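Hello,

I think I submitted the FE2/S2 (inorganic) cluster job twice by accident. Can you confirm which output corresponds to this input? Input:
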Amino acid sequence: MKEEKNFLCNIDDIEEGHVRRAIFPDGNSQQTMILVRDDESAHAFENLCPHYNLPLDFKGDDFMHPERNLLRCKNHQALFRMNDGVCIEGPCVGKRLKVVDIEVIERKIYFSPKPV
Ligand code: FES
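Support: Only one job matched these inputs. Its output is below.
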């Protein structure tokens, strides 16, 4: 069982195809991550746009394009795929959101950084 200090949320806390903001449990309170539910799994990205290194959301938790199939940066409207964080439209096409290492164990999502 993973240490509870790395627990982020339950998979069921995120609606299918939706996202949620989470704080890094390692004390990095200045930076948040974006958790994306993908069926029974999830993806996670740093909440930093590769265009200007700004958080994607500047008002509330809305990271989504209105059609809810892409992540959107509210600053200059870059659009990112939800499964790999690659920008497909906007000022940083081809760049990607930085992946955050997570694990899903028994429907719980844990921050799980790989050793360097
Ligand atoms: S800072 Fe995200 S598109 Fe410019």
